[in-house]
Prior knowledge:
Two copies of one chain form a homodimer. Chain A has about 140 residues and is of the alpha+beta class.
Amino acid sequence: MNPLKEALDTLKDTGVRITPQRHAILEYLINSMSHPTADDIYKALEGKFPNMSVATVYNNLRVFREVGLVKELTFGDASSRFDFVTSHHYHVICEKCGKIVDFLYPGLDEVEHLASHVTGFKVENHRMEIYGSCPECASKEVH
Amino acid sequence: MNPLKEALDTLKDTGVRITPQRHAILEYLINSMSHPTADDIYKALEGKFPNMSVATVYNNLRVFREVGLVKELTFGDASSRFDFVTSHHYHVICEKCGKIVDFLYPGLDEVEHLASHVTGFKVENHRMEIYGSCPECASKEVH
DNA sequence: TTCTTACATTGTAATTGTTATAATTAATTT
DNA sequence: AAATTAATTATAACAATTACAATGTAAGAA
Ligand SMILES: [Mn+2]
Ligand SMILES: [Mn+2]
Ligand SMILES: [Zn+2]
Ligand SMILES: [Zn+2]
């Protein structure tokens, strides 16, 4: 089944109304294959929805996050980015141009276990990102 | 040698003037043994420096970051936290009360290597945090 | 010392991403 | 259809941070 249809089913199951705006935001998240900001989405859809409020984008991204359809990525400096949730993965980020690349890695269970053991925390999850220069930016560096 | 003295030497070596405000901010960062926000520092020092501007705190934290004395920690939602740099470590964070605990773990070199291999990035560093409930909050949960 | 210049601090305004609020519109239930 | 509930819109508010201009301070040259 295609991911959009599946996402819409999730909304239906959790009693969240499927509005044209929500449909469009989901569709954009899935098709863009990137990690857009709320503003990216807002701008991308202003052709189709000239009257949509930026608050609607934020509201709906929060709704999607709450039902587990999207993951919010927060990289310190700038604004949040949103990732349509497929399988669990990490991100490799270019510090020069900001490019974000998905990166699969088998879960770091051992780290979570050790952290729990050492600190006494009930560990739920973790985040990890890898930073560096993408091939394009790295090649520009050496000139 | 004590860390404050060492930090002041670093400033001297890099040609950064040691002002009373800078001295006090560094001292607070080292002695508090925590991960304060800029505002925490500002409030903690307003007794000693009633006229210090919040801009001064931000300016100097940036200076300290640039010369490698402090690390800025950005956890999405709230404001940045600042960590006086000692040895490399990770953080375990309570999602209930916000407590932050240092956590030592041998470097995840393997992850960096694989990421570099798979994406072609020139990998520089990574970040990782572990999330869960601290012992106090976890015990409150089960009631 | 006095003059000069560079750096630092202060107070405040501006900026940015995000959220809150109230009014309006749309969808669902009765 | 009427009533109820949820969603959207427009705009104001907010909080963290930065920019800016004016003032203050310290080191170096004369
Ligand atoms: Mn991703
Ligand atoms: Mn720490
Ligand atoms: Zn790049
Ligand atoms: Zn806690």
